[in-house]
Structures are given as structure tokens and as C-alpha cells.
Amino acid sequence: MQTADALRKAIQDGRLAPGAKLPCARELQEQFDIANSTAQNALRLLKEEGLMYSVQGRGVFVRQLSPRDQFIKRYNESLKEMADEEAVRLSGKTDAEVAAELEAAGERFAKARAEFEAAADHRDAMRAVMEQRKRLSGN
User: Fold this and answer.
1) Which CATH class, in words, describes the domain spanning 2-62?
2) Collapsing DSSP states into helix, strand and coil, what is residue 13?
3) Which of 61, 138, 76 has its CA nearest to residue 109?
4) E-assigned strands of 5-77?
5) Could you report the per-residue pLDDT of 1-16, keeping only the tens digit for each?
6) Which end of the chain is flanked by fewer CB atoms within 10 Å, N or C?
7) Residue 137: other Cβ atoms inside 10 A
């Protein structure tokens, strides 16, 4: 779904900041030259993904990014900065050297992703424990 993808990317890139009002379905229809049902489906999908919320009578707004999406955004920003800084330096390397660095970067990313996901899983488990304790204590 191209409309949802474009809006999701704008949210993740920070072009649509938390709290920003999203275009209504009619505006999306005009902007993307799509049917009303397609625009409604795009907004529904973003809401299901937790990227937006609606306020009756006011519109739909960008939700604060999840810790995972914030991590991905910061990681992508740092990758772009590194790529810009390294472009000149890499131009003097052989294809094999660049390929080796690419593989090492991929390994670092995989390790960082695994650590982040483990931390998120642990946090979620601790939240579940706290909820269970609240239920058992009657709070």
C-alpha cells in the first residue's frame, strides 16, 4: 500500500513529528490520487501499527515513535552520517576491502538489533509481571 508506506516513511524519518496532524482522507485522496477507501485503509493500517491516533472531531495525529522505531531512526541517521563522512575515504579502497567493511557493518547491526530486541523482550516481560502483580493484589 503506497499511501501507507509514504506516510510511514515520513513518520519514521521525522518529517511528520509526534503530535503532527496527518492529512484527512480527502486530502490523501487528492495528494495521492487514490480512492476514498484506499485513503481510509492507509489511515486504518497506520493506526493498527500504532503510528497514529485519532481525536474525535479534531483529526488524526502522529503518535510518539515506539522505542524500536526510535532506535531504527537513530541508527539510520547515524548510518547516513557515517556514509557521508566515509565516502571519500572508501573511494580509495579495493572492492574486496569495501565488501569486508560492509560485512563487518552488517554483523555489528545484527548484534545491535539482537541486543535491542532482547532488551525490549525483557522490558515487556517485566511489564507483564507488574500487571500480574497488580491483578493479584487487587490494584
Assistant:
1) mainly alpha
2) helix
3) 76
4) 52-55, 59-62
5) 689 999 988 887 888 8
6) C
7) 7
